[in-house]
Amino acid sequence: MSRRHRVLLLLVDGERSLDEVVQLGRQVGVPRSYIDELFALGLIVIGPPVAQAISEFAAFGPDLAPTRPGGVGDTIGLGGPMGNTELAQLDAQDSSLAQARVAVLQVLRANAPVSGMVTMIRVRRVRSRAELRALLPEVQARLSRSRPLVEARQLMQRVESLLAVG
């Protein structure tokens, strides 16, 4: 996990509101898109009292985007973090890539939630089929530790077939 992701996880203590976490993150140079990644991976959960803050959170806009891919101190790789809007646009352009990304993320979340976290962030950041294909050996390595090798291979075949479509 990058330093910025760890900083955000430390800020989320169950007592701070989403607004406070976003504000504190901004003060230390953490773009909003890093928070999006933690939400998408299920590492940050917003309970009912804070649910209304999601729309305010989304309104911060692109002014918090990193100045270059990956941002300073980001060691995750495969480009910089993506906000939910950019991810939705990519998914709308290539539904097979979107389905493959979702399949890989679901299996990693279920079978390697801790050891696969960096891999999940990388998968979420892929912008093309080629980038996702390049990550498949890493995904398979994570899954082979927690699942029988046959099941991991079946998932890889399913993802490969999704990526081959179109």
Please render the helix and strand layout as text.
Layout: H1 3-11, H2 18-27, H3 32-40, H4 53-58, H5 84-93, H6 95-111, H7 117-125, H8 129-146, H9 149-164
Helix pairs in contact: 5-6, 6-7, 6-8, 6-9, 8-9
Concise summary:
With 166 residues, the protein is mainly α. It contains 9 helices and no strands.
Descriptive report:
By secondary structure, this protein is mainly alpha-helical. It folds into two domains: 3-81, no CATH class; 94-164, no CATH class. Helix content is 63%, strand content 0%. The chain contains nine helices and no strands. It has helices at 3-11, 18-27, 32-40, 53-58, 84-93, 95-111, 117-125, 129-146, 149-164. The protein is globular and about 45 Å long.
Helical fraction equals: 55-70%
Runs in which pLDDT lies below 50 for 5 or more consecutive residues are 48-73
Q: Give the overall silhouette.
A: globular
Number of helices: 9
Characteristics:
globular; 2 domains; 9 helices; 166 residues; mainly alpha; 0% strand
